[in-house]
Design brief:
The chain is of the alpha/beta class. β7 and β8 form a beta hairpin. α1 runs parallel beside α2. The radius of gyration is 21 Å and the shape is globular. The protein starts with 28 loop residues before the first strand and ends with a helix. The model has no long low-confidence stretch (mean pLDDT 95). It is found in: Cytoplasm. InterPro entries: Aldolase_TIM, Coproporphyrinogen-III_oxidase, Elp3/MiaA/NifB-like_rSAM, HemW-like, rSAM, rSAM_sf. Pfam families: Radical_SAM. Probably acts as a heme chaperone, transferring heme to an unknown acceptor. Binds one molecule of heme per monomer, possibly covalently. Binds 1 [4Fe-4S] cluster. The cluster is coordinated with 3 cysteines and an exchangeable S-adenosyl-L-methionine.
Length: 405
């Protein structure tokens, strides 16, 4: 049911932003809609998601209306701090958003459209499990204004899917992609590497299967063992091996080689696209520190330098809204030094890089050694930016430490 919420200051019951915070109309605004429902819990997952037996009074059939209540609350909060901005991006994440009827997702999107408007050419993404993305679902959501599906492929190798507790039929990956394409939508495939028992050849098979389907975008994430998950307990008991760092590094390098050969360019450490137009604009808004409101239990938001997060459980979320209260559980306002660290941490991950001027004085002196070590692109540094090489992407945390020394 997800990791613990961060510590922070109490959030006001009405959700109001501090009086001295005004919204900058020049900063893009995005929307994240969290759908916290899953049929089964994957052993590696620590996202804020719930199976039917964990809902404890919360109702899936009431969820769309609850989110619409939060959208109405957000309108009042933001309207008091400046002009409302149209949503440049909308992202339905989870969980498994496509467990809800497509009409419910459409109503949630209509709520965003009616409240804020959608910018011309807005990117609207829905995450989907391959087994839940049918022709009917794709057609209905395309008609509602969805532009893109992010399909949770993870692997095409049955024993790897089993190790991850994924229940979808590998054959349905191609079916899901075909459904999205038939509806005229862009497609992203999400992969995970480093599962227990996964070999480099297994990983190659998944990459080749993914590229053969010709999606517009591919994400490839290293498996991370999160505290409190089933996978963490299995590793602690010695039932399965922990991920091998060296093997995961080899897997990353193989992914970058094969994806580049297939016409995909990296633009963030774990993300590749066929062209700049196919990059995930929503995720880029996080890495660039833009504004977004996250709706749903456990969702996080950032507006005008204020960050806040909602109560975790769907029942608590529904109760707060039924009382006319904000579901926000806490919030924080990072100081200038914390924001500079965050800029370096996030922007160094993307292909545009981060300005060398953002680094500390010692960090700027470290750039030359980062170039010598093959972690940072020398030509980009001459232009005043830190851009990671492939090796640097594998050691991104070390680069950040050097820049913030």
């Amino acid at each position: 049911m997800g990791s613990a919420l961060p510590l922070g200051d109490p959030a006001p019951a009405d959700g109001a932003l501090p009086h001295d915070v005004m919204v900058d109309p020049e900063v893009d605004f995005g929307v994240y809609l969290h759908v916290p429902f899953c049929r089964v819990r994957c052993g590696y997952c620590d996202f804020n998601t719930y199976t039917a037996t964990e809902l404890r009074g919360a109702r899936q059939d009431a969820y769309a209306d609850e989110v619409l209540h939060e959208i109405a609350l957000s309108r009042d909060v933001l309207d008091a701090r400046g002009p409302l901005r149209p949503a440049q991006t909308v992202f339905f994440g989870g969980g498994t958003p496509t467990l809800l009827p497509p009409g419910d997702l459409a109503r949630m999107l209509d709520g965003v459209r009616d409240t804020f408007g959608l910018a011309d050419g807005a990117e609207v993404t829905v995450e989907a499990n391959p087994d839940t993305l049918t022709d009917e679902v794709a057609t209905t959501l395309a008609a509602a204004g969805v532009t893109r599906f992010s399909i949770g492929m993870q692997s095409s190798v049955p024993h790897v899917l089993a190790a991850l507790d994924r229940t979808h039929d590998p054959a349905n990956i191609a079916t899901a992609v075909a459904a999205a394409r038939a509806a005229g939508l862009a497609v992203s495939l999400d992969l995970i590497y480093g599962a227990p028992g996964e070999s480099l050849d297994d990983w190659r098979t998944s990459l080749e299967t993914a590229t053969a389907l010709a999606p517009d975008h591919i994400s490839a994430y290293a498996l991370i063992v999160e505290d409190g998950t089933k996978l963490e307990r299995q590793i602690r008991r010695g039932e399965v091996p922990a991920p091998d760092d060296d093997l995961q590094a080899d897997m990353y390098e193989l992914a970058d080689e094969l994806l580049a050969a297939a016409g995909y360019g990296w633009y963030e450490v774990s993300n590749w696209a066929t062209s700049p137009a196919q990059r995930s604009r929503h995720n880029l808004s996080y890495w660039r520190g833009q504004d977004w409101w996250g709706y749903g239990p456990g969702a996080h938001s950032h507006v005008g330098g204020i960050r806040w997060w909602n109560v975790k459980h769907p029942a608590a979320y529904a109760q707060r809204l039924s009382l006319g209260e904000s579901p926000a559980a806490g919030r924080e306002r990072p100081d200038a030094e914390a924001r500079r660290l965050e800029v370096i941490l996030l922007r160094s991950r993307i292909v545009d890089g981060v300005a060398i001027d953002e680094a500390t004085v010692a960090g700027r002196r470290n750039v030359a050694s980062l170039i010598a070590d093959g972690l940072v692109d020398g030509a980009a540094a001459v232009r005043g930016r830190v851009v990671l090489t492939r090796r640097g992407r594998l050691l991104a945390d070390a680069v950040v430490r050097a820049l913030t020394a």
